[in-house]
Amino acid sequence: MITNNIEVLFGGQAGDGSLTTGDLIATAFKRMGLELYTYKDFPSRIRGGHTNYVIRAGEHRHYGLADYVDAMVAFDLECVERHIQEIRPHGFVIFDNSTEKLTDAVRRPDVTFYEVPLAKIAKEQLGLELVRNTISMGVLAALVGMDPQIVRTLVTKQ
Q: What pLDDT digit, counting tens, does each position of 127-141 carry?
């Protein structure tokens, strides 16, 4: 995947870290010299309810989102169910399968699914399930070829 023109959707329940993760990845893209257009959709509740954040990053300025996204970081099954049709053919989904499993109903043959136990890794390796969004940033950065030093710097400053 080339990072010079990409659209990424982050989604989960309010409080899962979708918005924070999106902000950090958007900042990383900006520091890589890309132009950004972002869109946040979140409920008025503090915890609970579906939320998502879409980033469109590219070499040229955009004034809106594309019809499809290249990648999705899904912290829950609801995100995949709501947005699977928005994934571009040959795009990919990073799915936290720590507590939920993907169903055949949401799978598409033209989309690659990376089922990663983000919350489990966060709890076992770092002692705090809450930082699963940080782990998702590393997975996304590796898959799209982002500069790891930029991402690392942003995470350590957060």
A: 888 889 999 999 999
